[in-house]
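P.,

For your records, the input lines for the assembly:
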Amino acid sequence: MNNIFFISGFLGSGKTTLIKALVEFFSVGKIKSALIINEIGEIGIDNKYMKKLGYNIWELFGGCICCTLASGLIETMEQLKKYEPDVILIEPSGGADPKATLDTLMHAGIDRQKITNFFVLDATRLEMFTAVLLPLISSSITEADVVLINKAELAGSDVFDEAVKLVEGLSSDMPIIRTDKNNLVNEEVAGLIKNILGRQVVK
Amino acid sequence: MYQNEFKPTTFILKMSLSEETQLERWCDIAGFVLETYAKALTETDGVYIGHIKALFQGVADDYIKLSIYKEDIPVGIEVFGSSKYREISFIINSIVYGVDEGLSLQTLEQVFAGYQNFLINYEITLIDKHDHDHNHGCELDHHHHSQGNH
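Structure tokens returned:
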């Protein structure tokens, strides 16, 4: 069974940037990865962008991965088996509820232990999250295996501390990694990946 | 799930200049347009940007990708390529809380109306929503809005 890296996070939080960095990281380490993207909007920009960069991606389009496209996700996972990727990266749309998508994967018989849910929290928008998105953010943090508090430098240390408090208030033992927009696969993230994959990954 | 609150609006924004122009200059123009659009949208209380993204796909590997997630943070720009273009076409996905398609379109048009000395010809095409519940051919409906400066 492949490792599944589930990259959750609200719109604009840095999921696609993280995935791009992970794909490059895996490429250097000779790790085969496959990428499934679900996007909202009538035309998928991330899909076209990734293809422009030369990546093969499987796109789930025309709905949300956590509701109307749940069966499409399972079909796509089945199709990917023949490529024998070491890691399957799944990027749900930034409006999707991670819990619903994770439930879909588990109902399809995928072992939750094989899934690592990286939740990317945009530290620059804590105010908006608490104003209009608290249920989604709370559910997302609770479901995560690790939280990357992203754009930390841009947000400043006070806001970063608030973000840490928000995460710890919802899940006291949640692993938290501080990341910046231009350095998402930092040493700590790389070390975590190495542990998950159980082998040396050369950056 | 949260698409109900953060409704996506998709545009095709075509812009042309009188002569072939480097991608960096197009980045400046498109970045300014998106920043002005984002700021105008969020002047109203209760409006929040989810993500505004734009992509231009040029010849070979050329591309420009623009991204805004907060009105007071400068637009993120990624660009690759060295070709020059007289005309350029962006797909824009605008996912904003508290704004419908009509207001989104109107606001983008006002950006150009406010800067007519740009000497840019432009055309905005709003991509209407598919009926995703029916499994038949594409029913995209296109509304064109354009203006030429000569």
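Two observations worth noting. The radius of gyration of chain B is 16 Å. The CA atoms of residues 64 and 79 of chain B lie 4 Å apart.

Regards
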